[in-house]
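Priority: medium. Attachment 1 of 2:
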């Protein structure tokens, strides 16, 4: 099975209601027809609205940026998988390093979130990646391997077939310092070989592995040109429709 090329934006905690609507509309208006799947990772307040803005565009999908691990209940301020699904959400970004660092999320919790998102028929975008000191110590492949195993290795082949992986080295996020295409390729190949050992060649080959960390219009083409880099998870540059569209056109 051919794996999908994906340009996913993670807007993080940016855009008010009007800005979010305008940004989504601008992406829809400027998107060129192609096989690349474009994903908009928007704050909760935009989800229902963007879902209708993109409803007639087959290659744009909607992502949320988090989800609670329980079905429902007394969890003030949280959002459930059923709520996201009812707003037309297709993907949920999970395990982002900002959630790990600022909200203390560990792989065990992230694994539960992955399960509930799958149970509700949405696709997790599972983020992994090492901090700078880990890379400097030469332990990055080991650490990312542990993250991948802890969050994904309990899944069935069918479930794994629904997961998108995003490798986001923490030292490259929001820093303007991107991994080199060689560094990205090396890690993506490593992740794919772990997936192959556990889930088999077909599943591993069909899994989209995205790179995230200071993806910009001027470096996207070289990164996406690597054999195991199937697209990007884009933060800052996804907030400008022109830049994001240029990135989506860089395959
Ligand atoms: P930047 O593109 O702003 O570095 O953010 C990357 C990221 O965290 C995407 O999830």
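Attachment 2 of 2:
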């Amino acid at each position: 099975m051919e794996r999908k090329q994906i340009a996913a934006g993670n807007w993080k905690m940016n855009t008010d209601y009007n800005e979010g609507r305008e940004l989504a509309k601008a992406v829809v208006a400027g998107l060129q027809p192609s096989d690349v799947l474009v994903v908009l990772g928007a704050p909760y307040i935009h989800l229902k609205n963007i879902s209708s803005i993109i409803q007639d565009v087959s290659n744009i999908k909607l992502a949320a940026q988090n989800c609670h691990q329980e079905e429902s209940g007394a969890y003030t301020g949280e959002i459930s998988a059923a709520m996201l699904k009812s707003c037309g959400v297709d993907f949920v970004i999970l395990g982002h390093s900002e959630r790990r660092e600022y909200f203390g999320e560990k792989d065990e919790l992230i694994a539960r979130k992955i399960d509930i998102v799958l149970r509700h028929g949405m696709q997790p975008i599972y983020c992994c990646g090492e901090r700078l000191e880990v890379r400097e110590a030469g332990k990055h492949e080991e650490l990312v391997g542990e993250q991948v195993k802890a969050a994904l290795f309990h899944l069935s082949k069918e479930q794994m077939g629904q997961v998108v992986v995003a490798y986001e080295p923490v030292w490259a996020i929001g820093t303007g310092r991107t991994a080199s295409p060689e560094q990205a390729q090396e890690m993506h190949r490593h992740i794919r070989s772990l997936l192959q050992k556990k889930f088999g060649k077909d599943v591993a080959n069909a899994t989209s592995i995205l790179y995230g960390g200071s993806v910009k219009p001027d470096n996207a083409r070289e990164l996406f040109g690597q054999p195991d880099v199937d697209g990007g998870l884009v933060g800052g540059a996804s907030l400008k429709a022109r830049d994001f569209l240029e990135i989506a056109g860089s395959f």
